């Protein structure tokens, strides 16, 4: 028990050092009195330093680039993540960005891959089903909703599904 506790403490200590080091490397961004794009870029540079290798964090940065008018920069981040054996949750998050950008044909395969890899994630299956509905594919959407509600209905899944029928984007 003492060895396990010491090992956990060691891992936490090393992790803390890494976070502290990243925080030291991140200079306070200069955003005041700058043009909006310049301010955003300064903040994104800070965020990149703080994100390290975290895929969710890098996807969040890519989202701001992609939806904020710097599509190539965002796409480069997504491409790097997609090329490195991504987790299904990474596919889901990038798919959401494409959907948010109005690029359903790019979003659909990523979201479908997530749904295929996570057959028991009722809430996300319903969210993806809602996106199908909102993009005119009722049969595809209802197939996903059937999977989402195969077991007992969940609150967030029901809300997401309902929104899909009336073109209300699921709450993230």
UniProtKB/TrEMBL annotation:
Keywords: Signal, TPR repeat
Residues spanning the signal sequence: 1-20
Keyword Signal applies: yes
Gene3D superfamilies: Tetratricopeptide repeat domain
Keyword Signal carried by entry: yes
Mapped TPR repeat ranges: 88-121
Protein name: Uncharacterized protein
Organism the protein comes from: Lysobacter silvisoli
């Amino acid at each position: 028990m003492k060895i396990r506790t010491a090992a956990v403490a060691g891992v936490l200590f090393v992790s803390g050092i890494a976070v502290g080091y990243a925080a030291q490397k991140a200079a306070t961004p200069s955003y005041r009195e700058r043009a909006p794009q310049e301010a955003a870029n300064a903040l994104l540079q800070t965020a990149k330093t703080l994100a390290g290798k975290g895929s969710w964090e890098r996807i969040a940065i890519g989202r701001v680039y992609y939806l904020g008018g710097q599509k190539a920069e965002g796409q480069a981040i997504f491409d790097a993540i997609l090329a490195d054996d991504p987790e299904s949750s990474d596919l889901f998050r990038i798919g959401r960005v494409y959907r948010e950008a109005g690029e359903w044909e790019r979003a659909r395969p990523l979201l479908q891959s997530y749904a295929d890899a996570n057959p028991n994630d009722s809430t996300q299956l319903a969210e993806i089903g809602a996106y199908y509905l909102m993009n005119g594919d009722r049969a595809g959407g209802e197939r996903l909703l059937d999977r989402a509600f195969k077991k007992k209905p969940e609150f967030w899944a029901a809300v997401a599904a309902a929104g899909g029928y009336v073109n209300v984007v699921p709450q993230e």
